[in-house]
Amino acid sequence: MKQFRNMALPYIVWSAVMIILPMLLIVMYAFTQKGNDVLTFRITLQNFVRFFSDPIFLEVLKRSLWVAVLTTALCLFLGYPVAYIIAQADGRKKMLLVLLITIPMWINMLVRTYAWVGILQDKGLINTILGWFGLGPVSLIYTDFAVILGMVYNFIPFMILQIYTSLTKMDKSYLEAASDLGANKIQSFLRITLPLSLPGVLSGITLVFLPAVSSFFIPKMLGGGQYVLIGNVIESQFLTSGNWNFGSAISLIMAVLIMISLYITKKVDKNGQSEGGK
Amino acid sequence: MKPSKKILPKLYMALILIFFYLPIAYTVIFSFNSGRSLTRFDGFSLRWYEKMFSDANMMNAIFYTIVIALLATAISTVVGTIAAIGLSNCKKLVRGVMEQVNNLPLTNPDIVTAIGLLMFFSALGVRKGFLTMLLAHIMFCIPYVMLSVMPKLRSLDPNLADAALDLGATPWQALIKVIVPQIMPGIVSGALVAFTMSFDDFVISYFVTGNGVNNISILVYTMSKRVNPSINALSTLIVVLITAVLILINVVPIIKERREKRRATAVALEENGSE
Question: Using the beta-carbon criterion (under 8 Å), do B207 and A238 form an inter-chain contact?
């Protein structure tokens, strides 16, 4: 079918222009200083030096990683049992539960995040309920808690669905074999179900960690103007202070960090699989 | 099994579902609030809906969201399908490289894609607005279309198109009458994913738009800085629409299947009766 080969050409050109070129622009801006021309630029590490020598930016980086790791861990520990319960359910009920988990994902993230603003206010729903028991009020909005809650809320469906998929793909006869050989439920979960669901867990981790580390509207809406994560720094460099060079350098740092974590996850995945294949 | 063992998972599932749906229910309820407060319900009214429909900014944002989603879906579905068919016939090396390139917008954080496009458009001197937003949406939608068309092409029997060509079909005819019908499910699901990606996008749109062209996400983001219950009305509208569409998509096949089953049993009974 060589006749159709040329059909790929327009898209190859398009993606060189629309995908590759913008990426190259980020790298170029990151290694140059403001005021340089496209033709007469000088390569410099100034932007990276500025980032890594400023304790404020390092603090922001540290907080972003901490928030993302905590969000990912919470999604995993809260989401795994949900995926497990759904995978155990039968036919129609299983479909209904999957649908119920999926519906919120289709609703605009901004809309869903905004919904928490009212709930978390000082006189909001949670504090009203606490008030009935004579507790509170606790300040919830514009705290670490609000930001992490918002992130878990937005990203946990990714984790649940990934783990659920790997659990349903699992061959049930392994479990039967284990119980025939005298394993109890906990043993067969730890030694069969858990290792076999590892690929789902790992892709779930990637799908949560990636948006969590780069998110900037959740910290802005639920953390308030003072709550700054790495995404907010990039946003302000581009949309308010107009220092594209520094902004590009920060995005490059973030992209490299993400690439490293993706690489590690992939490595773990491969190791797990080769062990399972023995 | 002891009943206590079964209650725990049910309770947990219920709590998770409350966690999932509480904010959505809260939004819907407070969209009917007669007061401005987000925390105290003063009484039922439709004033925020009236306000939404008379607000030019909100109506514009809804209009742009839908128009851009439709255009981006149509263009990226056609381009993505053509590119996928072309690539599936390319050498392995080209295909591998292009798959990697295609993955970039999917695996990069949105904000990185967004600033890349922002600098690209400004380097070209294009005015930020409708065109830049549409181009950006087409750019990130195409990979999703290709991702769902490619597997269908891989499982396609290459002999079929060759047979059509041998029998005197032009390449165009072979394409339209032999290849496209077989990969149609992939094309349709690709288009659906593209539409929702475009409809929901915030980060990329936010960076590449300008001159008053906003979509719903950008509007919610900029409006949320002040208390504005019209956002709740808009959210409710979206929630109702999306839930209706999803239920339709999920329930229609079940009804169809049931009807077919019933028809099959009816036919079987009739055959039995005539014997």
Answer: yes
